[in-house]
Structure formats: C-alpha cells, structure tokens
Amino acid sequence: MANEILEAVTIRLEFETGLDEEGMPIVKRKSFSNVKTDAAPDNILAAAEAIAGLQIHPLSKVAQIGTTVLSH
C-alpha cells in the first residue's frame, strides 16, 4: 500500500482585472508558496483575504494547491 505525505502547499489568488473584447473576465493570478502544510483552511482563507485587501482588483477565487509524495 502506498503512503501519501503532504510535502508543500501553495495558495493561488485569482483577481478579476476587467473584461476582454468579448465581455469575458480577465483573470490575473498571484501564488504564494511555503505555506505551512498543517495550516487550517480557515487560516489560509483569512490570509488570502488579508492579501486581497491590499490589491486594487477584487478577489474572485482562492485555491490551495498541495504537493504530495508517494512512497511504499
């Protein structure tokens, strides 16, 4: 049976910066790595919202991206 170990966590914030010629939203992303692997989702969201408060454009999405290592 394989073991799964969470090695790294990155958060990605997406901001809507306007609309293109076809009326579709333009999305810009900012990523932050070296997030503690044991950080609670509520704390990650709170940090993302605090960062978003420093931006001009509205926050549209927060994603937590985990890198796992598989071993025997």
TrEMBL record:
Superkingdom of origin organism: Bacteria
Name of the molecule in the record: DUF1659 domain-containing protein
DUF1659 domain boundaries: 3-70
Source species: Peribacillus huizhouensis
Pfam families: DUF1659
